[in-house]
Amino acid sequence: MFYRRNWIVVIIGILGLILSVPVAQAQRQEVDIVCCYSSTTNVVHFSPEASVMSHEGKAIFQSSHENKVFDNFTSHFVGTVKRVSDKWMAHTLCKHMGPDGDFMLWETTADSESGMTSKPIYGTGKWKGIKGETKGKRITAGKPIVEGTVQACERWVGWIEVPK
Hints:
- The protein has 164 residues and is mainly beta.
- The chain has 1 helix and 8 strands; from the N terminus they run αββββββββ.
- It has one helix at residues 2-20, and strands spanning 26-46, 50-63, 74-84, 87-97, 103-111, 115-123, 131-141, 149-163.
- Strands 1-2-3-4-5-6-7-8 form an 8-stranded antiparallel barrel.
- Mean pLDDT is 90; it is low at 19-23.
- A hairpin with a 5-residue loop joins strand 4 (87-97) and strand 5 (103-111).
């Protein structure tokens, strides 16, 4: 009986140690940024009925949130756009790099009905394991300085979680 009681004490002690080990938790942060960019469009086909094109561009971010997440990040992106009649959809892949050199890859989908949504798919350094989602909308666009280009700004609002 004494032997059995010792085992119970040992098992309870081990369980207590296991339960007291901190579990890695994600740090959730709000995101509110303005992304201004210039891109070049390569038209595959353009007509009133349907269009297919690709785009590539560079951007810089300014954070509008007090936490300054993504402030002064730069970005390189590539994507495609398809339009049939008055409905369109786009798919863009982006590399966002912070001032320290750590970066994230994001995937953006957009269409004429749902708007723009972006989600992280990979991160390095402090962004390793990032999760989240942002929704975007264009807030301004200028007259293209060169034919086949776009200069515009978008506002992206959402959240991210980064493992501690």
